[in-house]
Write a structure and sequence with these properties.
Radius of gyration: 12 Å
Distance between the termini: 26 Å
Order of helices and strands: EEE
Number of helices: 0
Number of domains: 1
Structural class: mainly beta
CATH topology: Rubrerythrin, domain 2
Oligomer: single chain
Amino acid sequence: MPTETLAYSLYVCLECGWIYDETLGMPERGIPPGTRWESLPDDFQCGDCDIQKRDTHMWQKLPA
């Protein structure tokens, strides 16, 4: 039975335009490549402006 793999996604911070790429993760912050958005802690912060993941209205999933 074939297993379906879900495509990785990109999420953009609407405050500054910084993009979190699930395929890359953020190794410099201890987040390995392949880490899904849903697996990030709520206090995860934007790489540029420190908006937190829990501020959901400030993040948008980019279309594939």
